[in-house]
Amino acid sequence: MPPRIAIVGAGPAGLTLGVLLQKQNIPFTIFELRNKPTPADIARPSGMLDLHPGSGLDAIEACGLTDEFKPLTGECSEQFLIANRAGEVLFAADGQGKRPEISRNNLGALLRRHIPDTNIRWGQRLVSASRGDGGKGTVLDFGHSQSTFDLVVGADGAWSKVRALLTDTKPHFTGMHCITLTITHLTKQFPGLAEMVGTGSFCALGRRHAIVSQRGPLDSARLYLWLTVADEQFGTTAGLAGKPAAAAKEVLLEDEALLSTFGAAVKDLVSTACDEDAATDRDDGMLDIRAFYTLPHGCTWPSQPGVTLLGDAAHLMLPNGEGVNQAMLDALQLSKAIEKAYKATAGESEEARTASFLGALDLETLEKEMAARAVKEGKETDGLIGLMFGTDDAAYEFTASMKAMTARAEAAAGGQ
């Protein structure tokens, strides 16, 4: 019997790893908390992900999915607009096709199409993970059943249960919250707002807050109200938790500490989104408000045979455009190591193969490299967040930085 491999989590990291293992005919099982998405679920706006050369796009290429990926990237352009609190655009840039946008739902559906249905077990809530008797294998407890695996990959996000096997480190609150709202059929219903937010990404900055918009499926604008509020229980304290989105308007738009000092056009965007929010990720119709958490940059742990982490489970950080890319790169690098160890031990007896496979699988080197990347990305994220939220009028500082970056890129291109 070949080594038993479990992947906990069917997000981009877990699914990418699954596709890559499937291509090598390496058996595995993915366990996912959510139920299997329906076609209607997949069609809903779900946020856009820009994939980058050297990470996310490399993983797509390694999966053999580039041709299938490209047609799914037309719902959000690479246009990027920065506006001040009044809604006045200070900076506009159009991408060059180097970082195409794909909806999270479409990316998940694309990857799942290349994994047999029998390899994904839906509706499985992991209660705990523990080492087996004598340290052999890892036991995954799903409440109703337990299974033992030789290699367990924790791709189970911010509050990973698998991570507890490796470290006591837990995510800490960042002092920021995010409210997610969605307007569908924006161009037809609200052409003025569609013109303001453009065809790609838009952000209005001020008072250490940000209103971010991304275009997406169903001609949508998905808004992220990124609020700097020190109260970790802000949703409950402000009376927003458990309320419909429309009930949030007064709190958000009339409080000077929140969004009341933003201009009329930006406030109209937020107000409309509160009224129109009918395509959120929640099925109960309540406001989607969440606190932001992060792990220490370069979070490390003593490497253990047979257990490792990917993506947010390993290096959770504030949204910076890199999270999904680093997660997919984690999966790509781990898949190569698994393939190498799997092939190196293919001729061994069933009894000896598992131990040899785990010995040949160099998780320690992979984890060190992953931590080093996380330190680099974490520092860059800190710089980005400092520019966007460092002052009451951060739009101007952020614009200056983006103009300087654009000038450097143009100069470098001209010199080639």
TrEMBL record:
It comes from the Eukaryota. Residues 5-220, 306-349 form the FAD-binding domain. This is FAD-binding domain-containing protein. Transmembrane segments: none annotated. InterPro entries: FAD-bd, FAD/NAD-bd_sf. Keywords: FAD, Flavoprotein, Monooxygenase, Oxidoreductase. Signal peptide: none annotated.
